[in-house]
Prior knowledge:
The complex is a heterodimer of chains A (206) and B (193).
Chain A: H1 7-18, H2 20-41, H3 46-49, H4 53-60, H5 63-70, H6 74-101, H7 110-137, H8 140-144, H9 147-172, H10 178-202
Helix pairs in contact in A: 2-10, 5-7, 6-7, 6-10, 9-10
Chain B: H1 9-18, H2 21-28, H3 32-59, H4 68-96, H5 98-102, H6 105-135, H7 143-165, H8 179-184
Helix pairs in contact in B: 2-4, 3-4, 3-7, 6-7
Amino acid sequence: MNLPAAEWPELVGRWIVGHRCALGGVVLMAVLWWLLLPWKSNGATWCEALGWADFYRTMGDGSIGQAVGSVLWLFPAIQIVHLFGLALLGGSVIVMDLRLLGVGLTGATPARVLANTRPWFIAGVVVMIATGIPLFLSLTNKCCFNHSFEVKIATLFLAVLYTLAVRDRVAVREGISMCAMQGVAVLSLGLWFTVAAAGRWIGFSG
Amino acid sequence: MDSRYEPSLVHSFTAWLDSHAWSTALHESLWVWPLVESTHVLTVTLFVGVLVLVDLRLLGVAFKDTPVSAMTARVLPWSIAGFCVMVVTGLLLFYANPVHLAHNVWFRLKVVLLVVAAVNAWAFHRRVSRDRERWDSRPRPPVSVRLVAATSVSVWAGVILAGRMIAYNWFECGRDQSAFILWAAGCAVDLTP
């Protein structure tokens, strides 16, 4: 492109107006992170503050937690299936959100893409929760004092609720503007990214 | 290097990498290493996750109403972008700890599986370019295509498995290992009688 210098501010301005919903989604995610991170660096976890440490320990004392903690290969085996679930869940979220952003499978309607990705999304969530629970049960004492664990669980509920109640409804409804679809997709990607990143960070913290 | 050992080419090369100050800095970094490692793990969603959906289309179980060409033209590039991130972060992780990884059986298994995956991808692209027009819109592609897709899913699952297991030191050199592990990990063996 060979444009006079004076046209650039106008082009940037038009891009910002055209992507105002997506940018709004980025701002909302930044606010969420701003709320989560300072809280993470100071003071007690919710588990500590609410006095749930004994309750956590009781959960860990159950047969599942004890088995995962005592059989050498069981923990890594469950972690690996947890990662398979991550791939499936992440892949189906990404393909759907890319379509809402206006890239990827643009030859099909968002409703068609949703119909194709949703079974794999559900399968991914089921695998992740089914493997996540035994992993948690073998490490309840660590999780009680782990901020990343709490951020992950909190944003997981948010992300599942948001995906089922907002994003998937937007995908099947007709007449939603491109701008709104992009905003919805940015929030979905941001929420799921937070869940995954906080999940990985459990191992690095506490 | 201790004169009692005959260092392999792999060992000499990785020991040279290990001697770099940047390798040590990355290995010991409080934030950079965890961030690179996390990027590597989370990009599994973009790379393997998206690739698996393409493979499921080739297997005839997902996106049956979508032509294969639409999947390879509009979806696969995102997976390839993820693969590029995997290569960059993976090389950085290797650079941070080269000798240890070069003698890790799971890392070695992962490299072998990566080669298998590469051969399989090459076979797929040859197979696809030959007569895709005939089955592009068919819900269930021919058996040879499905076989390649099933291989792809299995091999990448194996790569995730081996990658996750690298962190476990059960088969580390220096511990009491079987002859097979000593061979598979390329452990230095004392040559003095």
